[in-house]
Every structure is written in structure tokens, then in C-alpha cells.
Amino acid sequence: MRTKNSKAITGAESDHMQRVKELPCSVCGAPGPSEAHHIEQGMHLVVIPLCQDCHRGSFNGIHGQRRMWLVTKKTELSCLNETIRKLYADRLLARSA
Ligand SMILES: [Zn+2]
Ligand SMILES: [Zn+2]
After folding, report:
1. Could you tell me the distance, in angstroms and rounded to a whole number, from the CA of residue 96 to the centre of ligand 2?
2. Which domains does the chain possess?
3. From the CA of 34, how far away is ligand 1's center (Å)?
């Protein structure tokens, strides 16, 4: 979600966010396309893929009561770690193909 204070997104940041959005939800594994959640507002490289429910759902979502997050014991940083691993794994697979 963008605020009026966030800086303009560069091409590289836009590309990265697009790749993240193609991944399945980091929390429940629902297939993409996902929404990109900013761990810190305005940092467009620190984003994780979330389905609408794990993102903005009032019960399950990170912006709501976080029930799904509590059940799965995921954190924003554990999701970020997984996201980076998936992006690198994809790249290595593409390179060896
Ligand atoms: Zn989800
Ligand atoms: Zn968000």
C-alpha cells in the first residue's frame, strides 16, 4: 500500500515487486498472483507476497488481527527470508536451464 509520503518507485524496484507478486502467499501458500506487503513503508525492496486474506483480511491479515500469522508462527522477516530464497532459486534454475 502506498502513502502520499512514499518516494517514487524506480524501475528496478517495480521489477522486483512484480516478481514478488508472482510468488504464492508466504503465510498460507495460496497460489499467486499475490499482493506485495511492505515490511516498512516506502522500502520497495523489502516486500513479501501475501494473499488478500493474509494481507488485508480483518481476521487473518497482517493489517488486521493476524490470526493466520499467529497460527502459522510466521513473521514478516521469516517470510522475507523465504521470499528472497525463492527469488534466488528461480534465478538459478533459469540459469541452468
Ligand atoms: Zn495467505
Ligand atoms: Zn501490507
Report:
1. 34
2. 11-96 (3.30.40.190)
3. 8
